[in-house]
Design a protein that fits this description.
Length: about 350
């Protein structure tokens, strides 16, 4: 099999299984190291052993390449495929099958780890009909948020990627825009007007008092471009970044505003977030809110985290028809366009 494809697929399965970043990057770097070489050159170097001296090639990645150029499925990949055949989540399988798209993902343009093209290819493998590219806005400097100029450049890239044969997923232009302390959105309104999807999230001052946080969130929800309220509590329940309590806000008031302004409440599928908590999902249901089950993927394998979100939504009795990511792309874009 193709050695580059084998290395990238291994990275995908490791990401999906939440392996350590350094382990994933070893395979991504090895794939990048040989991707510019003709296949016959890769084979010759693998057979002679010269490939070991290339920067980015280690013992395990060399073994994978050697087995691939010999015409075999590498043993390491075969083992990962077998493990990956099992579902990530214990429940939610029926709802997972109904999910058509994902409105929250990141690329290397902000704090994701992979090119847009690689993210889109992974979405295709997973059978997605559409995926929104929602890199961060400029205020989040720690995540390399996109300035207006860079977002303009990215829009050209998205248009080019959608200009193919039409067989893969539709790549939706988007942003995860910060809700600033003032309640305003952190990007030029004229640029937001050009996007397919706007996810609005709070990323700073998460320990503000209830009144302050509620007022801030309401500003973001009422902003004319907002389609989705991202990871509304900001909590972390596990993972390498440690834990973080949920922010304090008046959930009934916030969700009533979401329902009034046609803003979907995100069910964030990242295992370390599990946001909103179940009790808030129930309040959003009672308020009549729409929902968006999103991966918040920062790597290709994480796009399959939608399984976790589907499990939580199904457990909480969220009807599929109220989940915008079950909708076909035409209906979805009609919905997002109402805010433009």
């Amino acid at each position: 099999m193709d050695a580059v494809a084998a290395l990238n697929e291994i990275a995908f399965w490791l990401e999906r299984g939440r392996a350590a970043t350094f382990k994933v990057q070893a395979f991504r770097k090895a794939a990048a190291a040989i991707s510019g070489l003709p296949p016959e050159e890769v084979r010759a170097r693998a057979v002679s052993g010269r490939l070991k001296s290339m920067k980015g090639i280690g013992d395990r990645t060399f073994q994978v390449i050697r087995q691939a150029v010999e015409g075999n499925v590498p043993e390491y990949l075969a083992d990962l495929r077998e493990k990956g055949a099992k579902p990530l989540a214990a429940g939610g399988a029926e709802l997972s099958r109904q999910l058509r798209g994902d409105l929250h993902s990141h690329s290397e343009w902000s704090d994701g780890g992979s090119p847009i093209e690689v993210m889109l290819a992974a979405a295709a493998v997973l059978g997605r009909e559409y995926v929104a590219l929602t890199d961060h806005s400029p205020n989040l400097t720690i995540a390399n948020g996109l300035s207006a100029e860079r977002l303009n450049e990215q829009l050209d890239v998205v248009a080019a990627l959608n200009g193919g044969d039409g067989t893969g997923p539709t790549l939706l232009s988007g942003i995860e825009v910060d809700i600033l302390e003032s309640g305003e959105l952190d990007q030029d309104p004229a640029l937001l007007d050009r996007l397919d999807v706007v996810v609005a999230s709070v990323h700073s001052k998460l320990r503000a008092d209830t009144k302050t946080m509620t007022r801030r969130m309401l500003g973001g929800i009422r902003a004319p471009h907002t389609n989705v309220l991202g990871h509304c509590t900001g909590r972390l329940v596990e993972g390498s970044r440690g834990t973080r309590p949920p922010s304090d806000f008046d959930a009934r008031v916030v969700f009533a505003a979401c329902a009034e302004h046609n803003v979907a409440v995100e069910i964030n599928s990242r295992p370390e977030r599990q946001d909103p908590p179940d009790a808030l999902i129930q309040l959003a249901l009672e308020a009549g809110c729409l929902f968006s089950i999103d991966s918040d993927a920062h790597a290709p394998g994480q796009l399959d985290f939608l399984q976790y979100g589907a499990e939580r939504a199904e457990r909480n009795g969220v009807p599929a028809e109220r989940i915008v990511t079950t909708w076909p792309v035409d209906r979805l874009l009609e919905w997002t366009a109402t805010k433009r």
